[in-house]
What does this fold into?
Amino acid sequence: MLANLSYNDPKLTQSVNALVGPPFNLKERWRLKGIGSSKLYITESSVDIYNLLILDQNTNSCNIELRPKGIIVRFRSLLETYGLVIPYYKLKLYKGKAEEYSIYLDQHRIKVAAITKSTHAFFKKLSREKINSLPQSPDDLL
It folds into this structure.
């Protein structure tokens, strides 16, 4: 779900929390050693996101927030904050080049440059959280 997250809208907050869960509490943030990525530079994106990014002359950057059932990829355009809300079961991660990660949700795509070691560590953490969210047995599917 691609949404404008700039304003405090209770209906939008409720739908985001239903999709990816509420934010982690402080104890869980300490356990995970942080839930946010550093500044990530966008190298390529799908048409919907690209049309938002070209509206201003700023550098195209984003950050990722971990949630219990998914992630939120946030980026800014024209003083507005947009978010790509992705539940883990729809999240697709690819590492094409050595310095680039791709994040997919249905028809939306964002490719980010991985310049620092902390970026690689964050994507390892993201992959681990996605795996941990999978059902452990067939009974968990019911």
